[in-house]
Design goal:
alpha+beta; Bac_CellDiv_Activator; two-stranded antiparallel ribbon
Length: about 90
């Protein structure tokens, strides 16, 4: 990760965006590609979904996955700490 803010231009769905952040261009490109793939999948599964609802569903799915991963990380960390206390 970079310490200075960088500008990154991305095309997501049918719109162009400029993001500013410390993430690398490769990271931002990967995120953009993943978002576009998932938007295409949502549109294929629900062809009548509008762009706003697709974006909300995409965000909901992303936050849901983030929470699941955080819970798993917390569980692994707790198990690791318990094993460390046993030794």
């Amino acid at each position: 990760m970079n310490d200075t803010n960088q500008r990154f231009k991305a095309s997501i769905g049918k719109k162009n965006y400029t993001f500013v952040g410390k993430s690398s261009a490769d990271h931002m490109k990967t995120v953009t590609e993943l978002m576009n793939r998932q938007l295409v999948q949502l549109k294929e599964m629900s062809p009548d979904i509008n762009d706003e609802d697709a974006a909300i569903l995409l965000a909901f799915n992303a936050f849901s996955e983030q929470i699941k991963l955080q819970e798993k990380l917390n569980e692994l960390t707790e198990n690791n700490e318990e094993e460390g206390n046993m030794n």
